[in-house]
Specification:
Blueprint (H helix, E strand, L loop, with lengths): L2 H21 L8 H26 L32 H4 L1 H19 L6 H13 L4 H18 L4 H16 L17 E6 L6 H14 L4 E6 L4 H14 L3 E2 L7 H15 L3 E6 L7 H14 L7 E7 L4 H14 L3 E5 L9 H9 L3 E5 L7 E3 L2 H8 L4
Parallel strand pairs: 1-4, 1-5, 2-3, 2-4, 5-6, 6-7
Antiparallel strand pairs: 7-8
Helix pairs in contact: 4-5, 4-7, 4-14, 5-6, 6-7, 7-14, 8-9, 10-11, 12-13
């Protein structure tokens, strides 16, 4: 027997047994943590892509809502500063408006004086017309007596002569020689101080604002004092007027002491070196003693800082005789230096100018002839008489 062949066969069989055992060896099972790590590696790419897509779609902190910054608030631009017209010639420019309101007064008198016969009844009618226009009984009587004397001396008279006679008499009663300038010149380092006083509803705050325009139009600098602390709207209104011409307004909370506001306004005027300080006071009934005493206090407190150059009483021309009673009481409390007659365009009773001046010895210095911002004018007696008589 050939042992060599047998050995070869045995060797081959052994190799086949060993190789088959290696090929059919079972795979070792994975531990749970290994399977988890394998899953994370398989899904990691997908998770990363989703996260990147969400971050691109929803930027910001996922813990709360996204805050969008609002654009900054831009304040509205301040209104431009106006340049009012100068006071010179204002009443002349407003003559047509004045003539319309006073035509009943002037033209009625001219018609009566131009009659062919002037008997007692005619003269009584002339006197009644004057009284109706609030000239006052005393002044009306004087005018009629003077006219009757001149008519007798002249004899016959034409309409032109009647106009001349009436013009002379009205001017004499208005007294063109009275000092009507509003004192607005500073004295030293102190500004001129003007107090505006009057009863409720006469237009004091509006007059204060319009007067500031008159002064600015004349080249003067102004500070406004809102001493009407009973009405918050009064201070707001005054600020509107001041803002239009660049005049600062000193004000305090509603209910503050008016004398304190007036004092601070004058102090501000001194600090700023302005020409004039206009103090708007609260409206008060001339029959209320407490309110009138308070007005006197305002004036006394202001005078600790600077002298008061003007105390201008605002009268409504439509109130007639009641306006005269108001004027008397105010004059007793604060020594009125001048009259501002408002709403003169809304009444035919311009004769109140004659009566107020006669009773108080105080001149009408300013007249209001409308609602426009520049309808306050220095009173010119000749322009006034010419307007109501229809002269150019």
């Amino acid at each position: 027997m050939d042992y060599t062949i047998v050995a070869v066969v045995i060797f081959v069989v052994a190799l086949l047994v060993v190789g088959g055992a290696f090929l059919i060896r079972p795979r070792r099972p994975q531990a749970p943590d290994e399977r988890a790590r394998a899953g994370e590696r398989e899904e990691g790419g997908a998770h990363t892509a989703v996260a990147e897509r969400e971050e691109a779609e929803e930027p910001g902190d996922a813990a709360g809502p996204v805050t969008v910054a609002e654009p900054p608030t831009v304040p509205p631009p301040a209104p431009p500063i106006e340049t009012p017209p100068p006071s010179a010639g204002r009443l002349v420019r407003l003559r047509a408006r004045l003539a319309r309101s006073q035509s009943v007064f002037g033209q009625g008198l001219l018609g009566l004086l131009s009659r062919d016969t002037l008997d007692d009844d005619a003269w009584d009618e002339i006197e009644d017309t004057l009284i109706t226009a609030d000239v006052g009984v005393t002044s009306a009587t004087q005018i009629v007596q003077s006219l009757r004397t001149k008519v007798k001396v002249l004899g016959t008279r034409s309409p032109e002569e009647a106009r001349t006679l009436l013009r002379e008499e009205l001017l004499a009663q208005i007294n063109p020689d009275l000092e009507r300038g509003v004192r607005t010149e500073p004295h030293g380092d102190r500004p001129a101080v003007l107090m505006i006083v009057g009863v409720n509803g006469t237009g004091k705050t509006t007059t204060s604002g319009k007067l500031a325009r008159v002064l600015v139009g004349d080249g003067r600098s102004v500070v406004l004092g809102a001493a009407d602390t009973f009405r918050a709207a009064a201070a707001d209104q005054l600020e509107t007027w001041g803002g239009r011409v660049g005049a600062p307004v000193v004000r305090k909370d509603e209910g503050a002491d008016p004398a304190s506001v007036a004092f601070d306004a004058v102090s501000r005027g001194i600090e700023d070196g302005v020409d004039a300080v206009i103090i708007d006071t609260a409206g008060r009934l001339h029959t209320k003693t407490g309110l009138m005493d308070e007005l006197g206090k305002v004036k006394r407190v202001v005078e600790k800082k600077s002298q008061v150059d003007e105390v201008l009483l605002v009268l409504d021309a439509t109130t007639g005789q009641n306006g005269l009673r108001q004027a008397r009481v105010f004059a007793e409390v604060v020594n009125i230096t001048g009259i501002v007659l408002t709403k003169l365009d809304g009444t035919a009773k311009g004769g109140i100018i004659i009566q107020v001046q006669r009773e108080l010895g105080v001149p009408v210095k300013l007249v209001g002839l409308g609602e426009g911002p520049d309808d306050l004018a220095p009173f010119d007696p000749e322009a006034f008489v010419d307007a109501i008589l229809g002269e150019g």
